[in-house]
Amino acid sequence: MRILACLTAVTLLAACQPAAESTEGAEGAPQDAPLQAAPPAGPAVEPAPAFVGLWAAEPSWCSNTIGPERPIEVTATEFRGYENTCQITDLTATDTGWTATFVCQAEGAASNEAVSLKADDNRLEVTWIDEGYAVEWRRCPA
Known about the structure:
1 helix, 11% helix, globular
């Protein structure tokens, strides 16, 4: 009985001892390694809006890098066309796309334009709300 009590006490003491840093098993893999907390997840990265990319009125324009018949470049914050650049501000998602304000510099003149953007994998439509007209482009291949 005394031996059983001693073995129980030794087992309990062993259970209270800190685990070894790492011991290797028969296949060389670490076993009984202390658990490490996973690093905290960083902020979620939002995917780029569908309107981001290179767009052209005609597919043949996609390969042009100069002149008026070249693609426009749209980022999440900027719209760059031939002889104009617009900062995209006040961007708001809607049921059908986005509304925004284009703060533009075009041919030396500044303007603020309320626009509606609709985009999918292949098509971008920009509607100038106050003027009531729209322009459509096709996505250039990446």
